[in-house]
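agent> Task received from the user: take the single chain below, predict its 3D structure, and emit structure tokens. No templates, no multimer pairing.
agent> Plan: (1) validate residues, (2) run structure prediction, (3) serialize to tokens, (4) report one or two observations.
agent> Step 1 OK, no nonstandard residues flagged.
tool_call: predict_structure(input=
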Amino acid sequence: MKLLQELIEIRGASSDESRVSAFLLDYVAKNQDSWKVKPQVFAGEEFQDAVILVFGKPRTAIFAHIDSIGFSTAYDKNLYKIGGPRTQDGFRLVGSDSQGEIETEIMLIEDANGSMTIKYVSDREIDRGTILTFKPDFRETDLYVQSPYLDNRLGVWSALKVAETLENGAIVFSTYEEHGGNSVGFCGHFLKRSFGVRQALISDITWVTDGVVHGGGVAISMRDSGLPRRKYLDRIIALARESGVKFQLEVESLGGSDGTQLQKTDLGFDWCFIGAPEDFVHSPDEKVYKHDIMCMVELYRYLMPRL
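)
tool_result: status=success, residues=307
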């Protein structure tokens, strides 16, 4: 879990993913010689802060978003949400501005009408527009890991583990997923135009719900706010049953992912969300069971050569 902890410590809210991107490029450069296939690496201003790895002759792409939720500082010590973070008095936040490193905490103020304002607690005004994220606090036991930003640094970690043995496929480390989507469309266009790729697996983290539980294995999402094409979904579920890897089926009406963004493009991409479930979503205490994490990696390794 050392790599996961390192990923979580990198600040990278939506729109501010450059440090995560740089870490990934450095990690690939240092580790790719030990992987089964050395990938082609596509990055740079054409891709903004997204990174694409292409292995052999790809048919399927894994999409894993590298951004996180967070907050922007505004006027009068107000905080505006980036994505959908949970808020609670005392949640610790970190960042940096022109005056140096910042560590602060959230304070919620309710007005006479019951409306809630989110503020930061500080002896000084933080520069306007500064991005703050939850303070890293990585905890690990024999059964689980708990930390802010398992969504989606855990999805990124899983994709890097799959990269070690991947012979034919692509991995897209995408941006802006938590705040409206951004790079999925042009990365999808690039893969389809350059390599003929038109199907995807979404390496992301889902929710513990009444029907999806800790220890039940990786979740294959049959739907959230988006609907994957049933023919492609049925093929994945059949392969998952054949694999022997423990999995559970998710059916939700809300939520979205890079898959939802792919569905909104004109690319004709098939997609399916496959990820471990977490509790305490979008908080500093996101919690995922290790058994489900291992099932996630195993299922991706089984699916990629067969799709």
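agent> Step 4: summary for the user.
The chain has two domains: 2-68+139-303, 70-134.
agent> Done.
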